[in-house]
Structures are given as structure tokens and as C-alpha cells.
């Protein structure tokens, strides 16, 4: 015979979920901390929009690193250096147009699941040593 008797649990557990996407109340202080660390440790990084003193960009990196000042400083430093080395500030509509005309990439006919444009890159048409963005 098979028993179909169900036993009720004897202990009740309460679980809580904490969202990491909720910003702490002191975000302005965290942004100031990141700025101070960058000024002391990375003062050769550029200033201005997308630089080491760009409040909005700093806040974005803080959110991305779950409000860890150390992690945000590290990732932000790498990002600013990459932008400088790659020459992001030299990109123009004309340089992007020339790159698009190579056929290496094209816009897909459909949007992604969030309604954003999809860029398809054909790796076989990419030659890393051949690049002129200016």
C-alpha cells in the first residue's frame, strides 16, 4: 500500500532578497571617492566628458561594479585608457561610414528581444592590422 499522507513542515524559514540594482543613499559620496582616488592614483587620465571627472560615467561604473569604489576605479581606469588608445574621440560619422562600406558588418533586418538594432559582424572580412579611423 502506498501512503498518501502529507506531513506539514515543522519549521518556517523566511528568506529575503536584496536587490543590488537599488542605489545606496550616498552615491554622491561614492562618486567623490572615485574622483579622489583617480586624481591621486591616475592623474594622467584626461578630464572632461568621458574623463576621470565625469560624474555620470563614474556613477555608471559604480553601478556596474555594485558600488565598489575599488572595482569601479579599476574598471574605469581601463576604460578611459582604452578610449584614448583606440582613438574614440577621433571617430566621426565619415570614418564610421567608410568602415561600414567595407561590408565587414551590417544592420540586421530585425531588432533584438529588447527592441534594439542588431549589428552583424562578419569576422572573415576583418583584417586586424588594416585599420584607418581618421
From TrEMBL:
<dbReference type="GO" id="GO:0016036">
    <property type="term" value="P:cellular response to phosphate starvation"/>
</dbReference>
<dbReference type="InterPro" id="IPR036865">
    <property type="entry name" value="CRAL-TRIO_dom_sf"/>
</dbReference>
<dbReference type="GO" id="GO:0008526">
    <property type="term" value="F:phosphatidylinositol transfer activity"/>
</dbReference>
<dbReference type="InterPro" id="IPR036273">
    <property type="entry name" value="CRAL/TRIO_N_dom_sf"/>
</dbReference>
<protein>
    <recommendedName>
        <fullName>CRAL/TRIO N-terminal domain-containing protein</fullName>
    </recommendedName>
</protein>
<dbReference type="GO" id="GO:0009570">
    <property type="term" value="C:chloroplast stroma"/>
</dbReference>
